[in-house]
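Reading a protein record of the kind used here takes little practice once its layout is understood. An example of such a record is reproduced below.
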Amino acid sequence: MFREKVETVRAFKTYTALICLWLAGCTHIGPGTILSDRTALVESLGSSWNKQLLLDLVKVRYMEFPVFVDVGQIVAGYTLGSASQWTLTRVFGQTPSSDFQTLLNIFGAGTYSDRPTITYTPLTGARFQKNLMSPIPPRAILFMLQAGYAADLILGMCVDSINDLQNRSVLGGRWLPGNPGFFRLIELLRNLQAAGGIRMIIRQDKEKGEAALIAVGEKRLDPESEAAVKEIEELLGVRPGLKEYKVVYGNVPGADDEVAMLTRSVLRILIELASHVEVPEEHLEEGRALRLPLEEAEKEGAGKHLITIRSGKSAPADALVAMHYRGYWFWIDDKDLMSKRTFAAMVLFFTISEVGEQAAPPVLTIPTQ
């Protein structure tokens, strides 16, 4: 009987220790959620951005108004509750000589809740005008080139003209193929960029303010790059032999040491890229979208397609992003590297196009529980 008492006490201590460890191990759940939550949110936000952009590109092609909704704040709230109860009961026999029994009753309960709070901010009013309708500053484009983005991609998307060399465009439903000199220029700039013969400078001037500059030929170039610099000078009509050229916003430069860039807004870029959405023949015949002679872009000297958005009745098997709209599927092929690169750059444009003060996000008060 004494041995049974000892075993009972040991069991009671063991159960008590296990319960205490369980309670202690569940008191801190925040650190363990960071890895899973953060990666899941990155994947979810990226997927939502892609689908929103694709949907708006398709809507613009159908002459509908694009709608953008930003994710303002994400607050992850977790609640963990636990309760435990244990009782030790000794039941004696009917006679003094009878053995007694020890009964251990254990009760435990736990609760867990995950209550994320997400705020959405529609892009309307003044923010829409500033972020989507204002031209991208030339200095922002130079920053992108300096960061390593290909000159032919960025200039082909973001610029209407450079020193009056016109890029191809869609204005008022009319297809303008552009000046062959423009596409030759951005090709030369891309080659010179790859050779390290060009860099972008943002210089602060106390009197004139901020100045954006293009520096060329600062280091010894190979004969091919030197020939490219001379051809660039001829295409731009600038004074030859200079090491720096000032970049200004506009269509025509005011001096022979300036490079005038007429930049586009994000909304304008959307309109241009939307022209490459493959509209189903059924919708073109019904007049739901304009028929554009995009085959002009494939001609010699007219540049390359920056993006191709395909369409079909069936869902694509291998797509970077796909969206079902108006009874058809629209998608970007995951093996189309040019389209993927162009599409990814659009996310960056939404960042660099923001000017002025940002609207303060709503203040969330999270109660302590």
In short: The radius of gyration is 33 Å. Residues 93 and 99 are 6 Å apart (CA to CA).
